[in-house]
Design goal:
Blueprint lengths: L9 H42 L1 H7 L9 H30 L4
């Protein structure tokens, strides 16, 4: 993040306002990109974190319980609902914070 510039007159104030607006736009784009990545990869990240997918591959197996399609469908539904709720709340917070409406 850039340091605050000294404002000496109206022109330098306008320049600082423009610089800050550009900074806000960059931050919004970075947040959007990060949120999109999270939404696209949430299920995989959650499964790898909770069920240690990589460890099961290395050890040549794992619990048959986690391979049950009904169980995985239920977990998938729960994870999708959680991700949707988190996304809605984050979008609402961003809209409130940045003063935008849907």
């Amino acid at each position: 993040m850039n340091k605050q510039k000294n404002v000496h007159n109206l022109d330098s104030l306008q320049g600082e306002i423009c610089r800050l607006k550009l900074e806000v736009k960059k931050i919004e784009e970075r947040l959007d990109k990060t949120l999109d990545h999270l939404q696209d990869n949430y299920w995989t990240m959650m499964m790898n974190s909770v069920f240690f997918k990589e460890d099961r591959k290395k050890n040549g197996g794992g619990s048959h319980f986690f391979n049950h399609e009904g169980f995985n469908a239920t977990i998938n539904t729960i994870a999708a609902n959680i991700a949707d709720k988190a996304s809605e709340k984050l979008h609402g917070w961003m809209n409130t914070f940045f003063g935008k409406s849907k």
